[in-house]
Design a protein that fits this description.
Shape: globular
Strand content: 35-45%
Function: Lignin degradation and detoxification of lignin-derived products.
Subcellular location: Secreted
Largest sheet: 6 strands, mixed
CATH architecture of the largest domain: Sandwich
Number of helices: 6
InterPro entries: Cu-oxidase-like_N (IPR011707), Cu-oxidase_2nd (IPR001117), Cu-oxidase_C (IPR011706), Cu-oxidase_fam (IPR045087), Cupredoxin (IPR008972)
Number of domains: 3
Low-confidence stretches: 1-29
CATH class of the largest domain: Mainly Beta
Radius of gyration: 22 Å
Organism: Oidiodendron maius (strain Zn)
Helix content: under 10%
Bound molecules: 2-acetamido-2-deoxy-beta-D-glucopyranose, copper (II) ion
CATH superfamily of the largest domain: Cupredoxins -  blue copper proteins
Protein name: laccase
Length: 559
């Protein structure tokens, strides 16, 4: 667990996976500069000022990764339970590529009793919607014993994760990191890799779903730091060694089902350099608010005295219930031979479930938003359908069908989408679309959009119409997950520059399953030409045959 990812730090060394490297072109021989610990801003002929929405390095490299789902047991915090894992580890293998590479992921479903699909969270999937890995939207679920290949271009750079987008499977352990090497807005010595922050229970998420659906979100037992923690006297903590004077890049990922964390390392300051896949003008902070699905890249410098320090992921009780709230901790050791527990104290903070302040989140590549061509206002509510909790967006609780994914409907020329599959059609190219998402309910929600980074135009408490906030159109924060505050509003905007069927949903696992989602069918007339009908129909044929033999029935939103 210590610096396995350092190899990739410069981005110039070969990736850990089998890559097919093209002969260097004359182009690459005349590189302007070399990315190094002393100059992270540079990236060959490209740099931080490259508009990565338009331009991508032509590396000629394809990174090919084989992943396999396994059904096993593991004692991640010392307590054994059933888990579903990618290649047998939590987190699964990190996908590492360079900015501009093509990534090919071959996924084998080794489970006997679940379908699957693998979503590459935050990856733009520019004109490659079918590789977004969302069951019921871009594919039928992948049946047990079957394989599927996803292919996409790394048009952005930074940190993310992949996870299952089938039922609650992501939170049984089907997740892993993604690192796309590229330039950075501040210098650091070592790339320590992805650091997952998760909540964790001793029952499976599947087993807890009935309780979640009938009585609301359950209290969770524990949390994990990069896949490990203690519980009572069992388990072991995440540990990382610091060498005095060295600076480390940590790629934080909140992979929790229902926990907003404050992350901190006692006595240390973090320099924040990226949110999701967007590099930002760096700022320093002692603790960081990180919502479900969000990522932050931070640099921590080992400039404290030789001692042991706690690293903490603290669930915010305003929106999360956890029985080990003050014990989701790892250890930073300056003396690697030390075995004692740190005695340091947490920074003081006020419990809350707010995003980092919008004014701190300044994209380095400054892009302005335009006035909207189209806008929509969605009220988010919760209610009971029979005895079950369901979430509603504009009065619709989302249900899409495993065996009739949106892409198949588009391919079949059938646009009579069901009401429950809540399709918003965005037919016109390159328009600015605004969505106002608001709720009078006190629960905050991390809103995630597929296929785009969105601009955060406003975020606050109160009713949107009453507050009537001034929208921030000048270089607003851009990312792919933002918090809808409890009793508040979130206004996001983006351009219709990517044809496909894209999901927008709450990233709280229970809420996704309980229908908090809608889908955008963007530029439908261009979508059919992008579909690989062999992959689409083979996956659906195998799925239909699995369903008829197993009798499995959809009992959630299908995503
Ligand atoms: C996205 O795909 C379109 C269509 O293939 C292409 O014209 C455009 O250059 C791509 N954008 C990036 C950043 O690669
Ligand atoms: C995952 O496991 C499969 C099967 O053992 C193996 O072939 C593959 O190389 C592994 N992938 C990675 C990225 O380690
Ligand atoms: C995993 O194995 C357990 C025990 O055999 C079984 O009950 C469960 O259905 C399996 N889950 C999946 C997803 O295959
Ligand atoms: C997935 O497998 C788990 C057991 O591992 C089971 O509880 C759950 O019902 C299965 N879900 C589906 C949709 O097949
Ligand atoms: C977290 O685990 C991943 C996968 O094993 C590893 O690549 C990464 O380096 C670990 N993170 C840290 C900070 O050690
Ligand atoms: C951490 O900071 C506190 C408060 O400034 C200080 O009292 C303590 O000595 C520091 N701990 C270490 C191990 O440096
Ligand atoms: C350590 O670095 C932080 C910023 O990362 C700075 O605020 C602090 O003053 C430094 N402490 C020492 C002892 O140099
Ligand atoms: C953060 O603190 C470090 C150490 O004091 C300093 O070098 C860096 O310039 C600071 N960054 C910002 C954005 O203030
Ligand atoms: C078209 O889609 C609708 C809704 O998904 C479905 O009810 C209908 O059967 C489909 N029609 C055809 C001809 O496939
Ligand atoms: C041990 C601990 O801090 N538990 C907290 C878990 O979350 C609940 C609900 O927010 C709190 O009441 C507990 O104090
Ligand atoms: Cu939610």
């Amino acid at each position: 667990m210590r610096f396995l990812a350092c190899l990739a730090a410069s981005g110039l060394l070969p990736s850990l996976f089998s890559g097919v490297t093209a002969a260097p072109s004359a182009h690459s021989l005349s590189k302007r500069c070399t990315n190094s610990a002393a100059d992270r801003s540079c990236w060959g002929d490209y740099d931080l000022s490259t508009n990565y929405y338009d331009e991508v390095p032509d590396t000629g490299v394809t990174v090919e990764v084989y992943l396999e789902l396994v059904n096993t047991t593991a004692s991640l915090d010392g307590v054994e339970r059933e888990v579903l894992l990618v290649n047998g580890t939590f987190p699964g293998p990190t996908i590492i590529a360079d900015w501009g590479d093509t990534v090919v992921v071959h996924l084998y479903n080794g489970l006997s009793n679940n379908g699957t699909s693998l979503h590459f969270h935050g990856i733009r999937q520019n004109y490659t919607n079918q590789n977004d890995g969302v069951a019921s939207i871009t594919q039928c679920p992948l049946a047990p014993g079957e394989s599927i290949t996803y292919t996409w271009r790394a048009t952005q750079y930074g940190s993310s994760w992949y996870h299952s987008h089938f039922a609650l499977q992501a939170w049984e352990g089907v997740l892993g990191g993604i690192i796309i090497n590229g330039p950075a807005t501040a210098n650091y010595d070592e790339d320590a890799g992805v650091l997952f922050l998760n909540d964790w229970t001793h029952e499976t998420a599947d087993a807890m779903y009935t309780a979640a659906e009938t009585s609301g979100p359950p209290t969770l037992d524990n949390g994990l730091i990069n896949g490990t923690n203690v519980y009572d006297t069992e388990g072991s903590r995440f540990e990382m060694d610091f060498v005095s004077g060295t600076s480390y890049r940590l790629r934080l990922v909140n992979g929790a089902i229902d926990t907003m964390f404050k992350f901190m390392i006692d006595n240390h300051t973090m320099e924040v350099i990226a949110m999701d896949f967007v590099p930002i003008v760096p700022y320093n902070t002692t603790y960081l608010n990180i919502g479900m699905g969000q990522r932050y890249d931070v640099i921590v410098t080992a400039n404290q005295s030789t001692a042991d320090y706690w690293m903490r992921a603290i669930p915010q009780t305003t929106c999360s219930d956890n029985d080990s709230a003050d014990n989701i901790k790892g250890i930073i050791r300056y003396d690697s031979t030390s075995t004692s527990d740190p005695t340091t104290s947490a920074y003081t903070y006020t419990d809350s479930c707010d995003d980092e302040d919008m004014s701190d989140l300044v994209p380095y590549l400054a892009l302005d938003a335009s006035d909207s061509d189209v806008s929509d206002d969605f009220a988010v509510t919760v209610g009971k359908s029979g005895s079950l909790f369901k979430w509603f967006v504009a009065s619709t609780t989302f249900v899409a069908e495993w065996d009739n994914p949106t892409l198949l409907q588009i391919y079949d020329g059938n646009d009579t989408y069901t009401t429950a599959s809540h399709v918003i059609e965005l037919a016109t190219a390159d328009e600015w679309v605004y969505f106002i998402i608001e709720t009078t309910n006190t629960v905050p929600h991390p809103i995630h959009l597929h296929g785009h980074d969105f601009s955060i135009l406003a975020q606050g408490t109160g009713t949107y119409a009453t507050v009537d906030p001034t929208l921030q159109l000048t270089n607003p924060p851009r990312r792919d997950v933002a918090m809808l505050p409890g009793g508040g509003y979130l206004v996001i905007g983006f351009q219709t520059d990517n044809p496909g069927a894209w999901l927008m949903h709450c990233h709280i696992g229970w809420h996704t399953s309980e229908g908090f989602a809608l889908q955008l069918v963007e530029r439908a007339s261009e979508v059919t030409a992008l579909i690989d009908d062999t992959i689409l129909s083979d996956t659906c044929t195998a799925w239909n045959s699995y369903v008829s033999s197993s009798g499995v029935a959809e009992d959630d939103s299908g995503i």
